[in-house]
Amino acid sequence: MAIYPITPVPDGSTVRRLEAYDILVYTEGGHYYAKDQKGNLVCVDSPTSCLQEAVNYVAQFGGGKIFVKRGTYYPASTVNIPYGIDITIEGEGDTTVFRYTGPYRLFQDSGSPTWNDSVVFRRFKIDRTGSGNNNAEIINITFRGYVEYDGLTIYDDYRTVGSDFAIGGYNNIVAIARRNRIFNKSYGISLYGFFCHIHDNYVQNTAYEGIVGGGVIYTNGFSSWIKIPPGLWVGGHTVIENNICIDCGQVDEAISVDYGADGQVGDGIGIIRNNLITTENGVMFNPITVVKVKHAIIEGNEVRGQFKGDLIGVYNFSNPPGSAKYIDILNNVFDVTNRKDLNNSASSRSLFVDAPHGVNLIGNKFYISYPYKPQGDDVIVLIGSRVVAKNNKIVLNPSTPGAVARHMSMGIIGNVSDPDTSANIAIASGNYIYDPNQDIWEASIEVIMSSNYSNAYVVFENNLLDVKPYWPVLGIYTFSNLTARLILRGNLSNANVFRYKVASGVTLTVYQVDEDKWRKVYSGDLPTVYAVNRNSGQATISANSTRVTVQHGLNNAPSKVLITPLASPPGKLWVENITATSFDIVTDTAPTADLQVAWYAEV
To answer: 0.90 cut: is pTM over it?
Structure first.
């Protein structure tokens, strides 16, 4: 590359050309230099290896591009980048190396935020191996209009301080991290922007978080310095995709969309998709988490290896205003070993989703091994007022046969905190659950309804359950008086039983719209069950008569009655006097011969 000089223009003035770069930083003979476009030396040696002087030079023109030639640089202090400028610092890939071990950031902010600027770091290597206890955030750029980290390689070997990250920045408007490689840090990438895109990165061996992204946040614990960009609000759109995370999140999570544990949450959208998360030498705590996001999509990820927390954790922290509303978990593959407690005393919960409205768990594959005797808890817990679990495959394999291991393979729980509805809908359809040791304590799939609901719609259909629990394979449990409409259809199991279970003093009334012919087992207070909610037959209006009374046998007044004459009627036909036991078929013209009428009734 070359430095382009000031160029004359026809009116006799001059203009700076920005075709290649505005200033060159290079090293020769153990010295550092910064040279401007005219070839003038701006810096010869400095504590920042002439990086700060290069930044200061372009800042006087409102910004520019700094090109750092190949070589090894040993900065001994922080480079401060002022607000209100547009700046790019670019190297020659891994041949441009910043080597230091001191307890300071390499790049950080300076001045007061303007949010109308941009900072871009591109194609260089930072090496802090041998830093010992000299922990430091490496790059922290906050409150910018645009920030981008592209093609950086970062090494460190100190991973025990919670705020020690390689790439970071809070409350930017646009934040991009792509094609970076990060090794051995407490946090790998911790980046927040109203539009945040973290993609195609490789992160390995992080103690806390591997990759965390979020939108604009307000966190009470940091309210003295957290700033929200003018004209924006809490929330944003975060996409974390196509990354590889190996041995990440050994204390916290491997990949997370996090809108703050103790603050407010707005209209945030988080997407985590097509990432590979695995372990080679460590144990993950939580592979994937979502914290207080309005709508989250977790799709197409592959998780392999060992974990000890929740495979996917969706947390709301007591459901403050603006908590999660819709969670879609779609087509992920988990081939993992649950190592929550190697001393055989841990719960077995593997996936926890807490969303006060809709949860969709569709098309996922779970292969979960337990190298211990798990104690209680549920493998999959879904909390919401609209929950769909469809076409999932769950294979559980504890190493201790015959253990009373898990309460449920899948629990669907009604959440009373949702202000948008007064009824629950729970659908479990097309799921396959297999436990070779046949050691589930309660139901394989159970719907648990909390209080304050007068109606519930529960569907169990076409599930294949190769389990043999101590209790039935499917069930409904409620803590309060509840009326439920239930569909049982097309399920197959080696333990064909269904359970209604209620808390003491609670009344459960169940209308079975459709039903497999299963034996029922009850515990707790017995519910009132109306097993027939649809019926059909034929009735006869006798010759010279104008009506017939039909006993429909539904134990409740039908909401729908259909009639079809089986011969040409002499006049009009209709239905009246619908009650809990019968209805009348009426004609305005009496037939001269008996008239057969087919009927269908449904509650």
So the answer is: no
